[in-house]
């Protein structure tokens, strides 16, 4: 899936080196094997999958014995298909709800609270939150399935308290998986914001406090503007991560009931591996990549000029 | 990808698990290994031992593909699509056979079958099941499964219903379910798989057990077209609708759970929480000694009834069969040797041992006559007798997608949607999958 690598160039010190080495093309020779490997195993499959998206390659039926180039046919099929649009909608709901809002707001809140709290609280909270993040996706999915399912621990707890039972996995599956994803992914946002907050000079905050600014005002006028670059980075990364979540949803609901939680990665999987339509599945994958690309571009647009380094 | 090919060859052979053996003298057999079952592995290992005695110069390599149903087909297809990875023998589900033949993955074996004395022991209906659309045969069936209504005889007696019980029409089934509901509150009267989460169970054990008991069908073999807008389709959806609207089925949150089958077989039947379930011959394996739902009394308590047709029309019963077969990939280079091995795999003794160990229904008269098979399980004779009237699913390439459309239609009426709307959505989906010229309206 889409990965974003950010290279942050360190500002090297400005003293000129005594005799800077000349850059000759020959110096690149030692990197050739690595480049060839990257070309074969990374760029190769990427290019091949782009090509696949324009063919009718299938494991079964038409396009399995003879693969032919079909141009934009796969994309047309997708755009005419209500199931595809259902998946796009669900993907956007899932991403906004669990990635953009859930993980970032909760992560920020945790980071702000932990800044002021005692060390042992800090250690304890961080351990729990990061623990949720480092368990494998499959384990997290299964934990939530057993928690929310009909005979699961949540309903047993509710029954013990004489409260009505819930059936989220069936009534509102996309909300259920969003919750699970918030639970699982908040650690990343929390760690990013904690690191960013530790860079903020407390003196700024104190002087604003002396000037009579309240908590909310201080957060809005001092902390937020200073954190803006890291907020944007964090938003972008959580968005791209959330767009491609597969395992968690697959374990919890399998995309069901019906197609009520079938986000694009699950739709793609069903088309390519359950129905054997490799060409169409790959085309949908490219469209998912495009959605991620648009989101990344939008975030970059919002970033102020001086922060784009 | 020219550069890739040079790299891929040594890596692919390393991945294929050849373990440094000389591939020229090794026959490779691929099969599905899912969960902790060892039945298949033990069977092929034993056959490989016998085969090595006949042909000491040859080794047999087991290639287990660890995957659930759909993923197994996908992995198998990917392996068969290249001469470098194709194994010499593959284990295939009958319903994927035609798709794989159309894709050019398999080799016809009529010439081999002609000289094989065992072939005449196979039931005619199974001999046709391995015939592709081109009229050639492509596989040797191993065993099959059939479907019927399982019922809990103690609950039936408590509800005042007759035991043994054999319904003649759908109405009889519903009447029995209503009686259970009235007289045994808290007991689930009948399960019929109807959700998308249950996947192929919903299509085959659920909807198609109804549809093939009506005057309509799913696919017209003569016209070679998918049938749309049929009355039988609507009536079958109507049955599902009635079942759930009158609360004669499991509660919705269980019915929508992908683990419903485990729940029914391992918990509800042994605990007497469900009275009837339309399901396959294999579910009794859950009650065996050491199995997850161990239940020594199952043999006394559980009974079976044939699934009736809609209004009792001939032949008066419905059952569907799946089943598996051994086939020879077209891109494998040593079909003669593979056939030698296949003959050992399909010998009467080996096939009897395998069918008994796997708890399946045989498709062969020679195996059915073996005492080991007859006395293997108290339930097997009943299911074996159903084979002669069985129906196979249309083994065509679009079937998995059509099946998915059936599941969606079935689930929507289960959740209270109207059968007419669900059937209309199904018609347009299927038209989209196979194209308008591959469909027909019911006359």
UniProtKB/TrEMBL annotation, chain A:
Q: What is this protein called?
A: Multiple sugar transport system permease protein
Cite the InterPro entries for this sequence.
MetI-like (IPR000515), MetI-like_sf (IPR035906)
Q: Could you tell me which PANTHER family the record lists for this protein?
A: BLR7065 PROTEIN (PTHR43005), SPERMIDINE_PUTRESCINE TRANSPORT SYSTEM PERMEASE PROTEIN (PTHR43005:SF1)
Q: Which SUPFAM superfamilies match?
A: MalF N-terminal region-like, MetI-like
For the keyword Membrane, the answer is: yes
Query: Where does it primarily localize?
Result: membrane
- Can you give the residue ranges of the ABC transmembrane type-1 domain? 89-299
Q: Name one GO biological process term.
A: transmembrane transport
What organism does the record attribute this protein to?
Barrientosiimonas humi
Q: Where is the composition biased (Basic and acidic residues)?
A: 7-16
Please list every transmembrane segment annotated in the UniProt record, as residue ranges. Answer: 32-54, 90-114, 121-145, 165-183, 226-252, 272-300
What lineage is on file? Bacteria, Bacillati, Actinomycetota, Actinomycetes, Micrococcales
In terms of Pfam families, this protein maps to:
BPD_transp_1 (PF00528)
The record's Gene Ontology cellular component field reads: plasma membrane
């Amino acid at each position: 899936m889409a990965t974003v690598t950010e290279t942050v160039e360190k500002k090297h010190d400005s003293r000129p080196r005594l005799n800077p080495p000349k850059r000759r093309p020959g110096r690149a020779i030692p990197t050739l094997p690595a480049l060839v490997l990257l070309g074969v195993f990374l760029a190769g499959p990427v290019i091949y999958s782009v090509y696949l998206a324009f063919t009718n390659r299938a494991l079964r039926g038409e396009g399995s014995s003879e693969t032919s180039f079909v141009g934009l046919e796969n994309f047309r099929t997708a755009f005419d298909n209500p199931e595809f649009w259902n998946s796009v909608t669900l993907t956007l709901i899932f991403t906004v709800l669990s990635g953009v809002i859930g993980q970032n707001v909760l992560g920020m809140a945790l980071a702000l609270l932990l800044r002021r709290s005692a060390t042992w609280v800090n250690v304890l909270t961080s351990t729990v939150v990061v623990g949720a993040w480092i368990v494998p996706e499959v384990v997290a999915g299964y934990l939530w399935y057993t928690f929310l399912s009909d005979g699961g621990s949540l309903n047993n707890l509710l029954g013990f308290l004489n409260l009505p039972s819930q059936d989220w996995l069936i009534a509102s599956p996309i909300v259920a998986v969003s919750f699970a994803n918030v639970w699982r992914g908040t650690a990343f946002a929390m760690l990013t914001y904690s690191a960013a907050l530790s860079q903020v000079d407390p003196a700024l905050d104190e002087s604003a406090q002396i000037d009579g600014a309240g908590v909310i005002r201080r957060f809005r006028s001092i902390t937020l503007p200073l954190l803006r670059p890291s907020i944007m980075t964090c938003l972008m990364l959580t968005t791209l991560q959330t767009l491609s979540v597969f395992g968690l949803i697959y374990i919890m609901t399998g995309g069901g009931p019906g197609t009520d939680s079938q986000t694009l990665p699950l739709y793609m999987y069903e088309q390519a591996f359950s129905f054997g339509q490799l060409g169409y599945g790959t085309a949908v994958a490219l469209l998912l990549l495009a959605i991620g690309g648009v989101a990344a571009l939008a975030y970059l647009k919002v970033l102020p000029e001086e922060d784009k380094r | 990808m020219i550069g890739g090919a040079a790299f891929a060859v040594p890596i692919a052979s390393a991945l294929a698990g050849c373990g440094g053996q000389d591939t020229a003298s090794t026959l490779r057999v691929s099969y599905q290994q899912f969960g902790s079952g060892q039945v298949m592995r033990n069977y092929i290992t034993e056959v490989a031992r016998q085969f090595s005695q006949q042909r000491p110069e040859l080794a047999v390599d087991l290639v287990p593909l660890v995957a659930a149903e759909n993923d197994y087909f996908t992995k198998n297809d990917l392996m068969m699509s290249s001469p470098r990875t194709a194994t010499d023998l593959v284990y295939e589900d009958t319903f994927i056979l035609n798709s794989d033949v159309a894709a050019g993955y398999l080799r016809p074996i009529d010439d081999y079958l002609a000289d094989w004395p065992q072939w005449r022991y196979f039931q005619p209906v199974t001999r046709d099941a391995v015939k592709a659309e081109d009229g050639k045969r492509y596989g040797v069936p191993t065993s099959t499964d059939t479907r019927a209504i399982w019922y809990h005889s103690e609950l039936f007696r408590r509800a005042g219903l007759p035991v043994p019980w054999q319904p003649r029409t759908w109405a009889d089934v519903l009447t029995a379910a209503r009686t259970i509901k009235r007289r045994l509150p808290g007991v689930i009267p009948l399960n019929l798989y109807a959700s998308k989460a249950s996947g192929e169970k919903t299509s085959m054990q659920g909807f198609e057990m109804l549809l093939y008991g009506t005057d309509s069908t799913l696919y017209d073999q003569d016209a070679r077209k998918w049938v749309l807008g049929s009355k039988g389709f609507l009536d079958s959806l109507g049955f599902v609708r009635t079942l759930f609207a009158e609360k004669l089925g499991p509660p919705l949150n269980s019915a929508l759970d992908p683990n419903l089958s485990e729940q029914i077989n391992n918990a509800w039947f042994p605990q007497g929480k469900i009275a009837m379930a339309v399901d396959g011959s294999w579910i009794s394996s859950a009650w065996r000694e050491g199995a997850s739902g161990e239940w020594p009394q199952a043999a006394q308590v559980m009974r079976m009834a044939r699934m009736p047709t809609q209004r009792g029309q001939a032949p008066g019963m419905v059952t569907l069969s799946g089943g598996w077969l051994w086939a020879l990939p077209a891109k494998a280079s040593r079909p003669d040797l593979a056939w030698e091995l296949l003959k050992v795999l399909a010998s009467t003794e080996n096939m009897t041992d395998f069918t008994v160990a796997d708890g399946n229904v045989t498709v062969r008269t020679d195996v059915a006559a073996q005492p080991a098979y007859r006395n293997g399980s108290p339930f097997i004779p009943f299911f074996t007798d159903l084979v002669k009237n069985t129906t196979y699913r249309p083994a065509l390439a679009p079937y998995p997608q059509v099946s998915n459309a059936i599941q969606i239609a079935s689930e929507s009426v289960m959740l209270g949607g109207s059968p007419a709307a669900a059937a209309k959505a199904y018609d347009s989906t299927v038209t989209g999958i196979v194209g308008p010229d591959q469909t027909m309206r019911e006359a």
